[in-house]
């Protein structure tokens, strides 16, 4: 059941205070570039301790170095390849978070694979399975593994990056579209299961058209320089990960205000 401060709540309009996320521990997957990197650095800027989760250590180290110039000692690196990780890798991550922080206040599932844009009859089965695993199964496993840490928070938030094609499918988007439908469903299911005290709020957020490598891969003929930077999309993420979104759960929002209708209909990604 979705609850929160009214249907008019628009996280994309949120203006964060300088210490908005002070004291919060937030883990972010896909934190090495694009939206994940932008949100991670914004979380640091507004006071959070951030756990960078990703498969490419070099990229995570770059984000770490940038974070040190914003606020020293605010970031830790947690290498995890969501495609290849096994149970022990997830358990080790959970144990490391428990040892260092004792709890988790926010979990952003941002990592994703696009796969190939092609008709269903030409979809490669192995690619389909890779996309579904990274985009759906891995977030399920990571959430399940980190629930004990999230339950130790006084105000925990789980947030999924979603997409327009996860609300209304379009031809040729294949496994990516199907995976994002599944992400929306997983978000709603978790919100319903976790609404009882101590509540863990769960929401989904569509960033819309953004200047990322995935966007370039999906639309190679597009002039990507005309699109908003990832840094222009972080306001809604901060609102839903921080105190502004307290008690808001079971909803799906857009970063682009002009595309939103009651937080559920969006422009294209």
Summary?
The chain has 269 residues and is of the alpha/beta class. It is built from seven helices and seven strands.
Which secondary-structure class do the elements indicate? alpha/beta
CATH architecture descriptor:
3-Layer(aba) Sandwich
Unreliable residue runs: 260-269
Report the sheet-strand fraction: 5-15%
Q: What radius of gyration results from the CA coordinates?
A: 17 Å
How many separate helices?
A: 7
Count of β-strands: 7
Summarize the main sheet.
Answer: 7 strands, parallel
Primary descriptors:
single chain; 269 residues; alpha/beta; Rossmann fold; seven-stranded parallel beta sheet; 7 helices; 7 strands; 14% strand; globular; disordered C terminus
Textual characterization of the structure:
The protein has 269 residues and is an alpha/beta fold. The protein has one domain (20-254): NAD(P)-binding Rossmann-like Domain (Rossmann fold, 3-Layer(aba) Sandwich). It is built from seven helices and seven strands. It has helices at residues 34-45, 57-70, 87-100, 125-151, 174-193, 213-218, 234-241; strands at 25-29, 49-54, 75-79, 106-109, 156-161, 200-206, 251-254. A seven-stranded parallel β-sheet has the order 3-2-1-4-5-6-7, sandwiched between helices. β2 (49-54), α2 and β3 form a beta-alpha-beta unit.
Write the layout of secondary structure elements.
Blueprint: E1 25-29, H1 34-45, E2 49-54, H2 57-70, E3 75-79, H3 87-100, E4 106-109, H4 125-151, E5 156-161, H5 174-193, E6 200-206, H6 213-218, H7 234-241, E7 251-254
Helix pairs in contact: 1-2, 3-4, 4-5
